[in-house]
Design brief:
The chain is mainly alpha-helical. It has helices spanning about 25-30, 45-60, 65-90, 90-120, and strands at about 5, 20.
């Protein structure tokens, strides 16, 4: 999908391309998941893989933002689960939030490993 378009009506409007609006579903996906930021370094020629690696290193600057988002969600889910388990006495309901906290922790581990790898490791070729 192309995220740029030229203004309708020929010469009207700005001369540079304008961004198309993303759907709410796409915005939600991009807010929580960071896979769309990166390119595959295992495809194409050596030159294209090197360019993809440099692109991924540059895009790694956004990973701390995703880490913060997921850390907040993880801590909130863990706190809600503890309140439900000890305050209300509903261990089955609290398990729903504990599972969400565990998933959030896993996303944070993956993002941390990616960040460290992209910042500290040399190019793989």
């Amino acid at each position: 999908m192309d995220t740029f378009s030229t203004p309708a009506g020929g010469g009207e409007g700005p001369s540079e391309p304008t961004r198309l609006a993303l759907t709410f579903r796409q915005l939600l996906y991009r807010y929580w998941f960071f896979g769309w930021l990166f390119r595959d370094v295992n495809r194409a020629s050596l030159l294209e893989r090197a360019a993809a690696w440099r692109h991924n290193q540059h895009q790694a600057r956004w990973l701390p933002t995703y880490l913060k988002r997921w850390a907040v969600v993880t801590l909130l889910c863990f706190g809600i689960a503890a309140l439900i388990e000890h305050g209300v006495g509903a261990p089955v309901l609290s398990a729903v939030f504990y599972v969400q906290a565990a998933l959030g922790f896993t996303v944070n581990v993956v993002a941390s490993v990616m960040l460290l790898g992209l910042k500290m490791l040399p190019a793989p070729f």
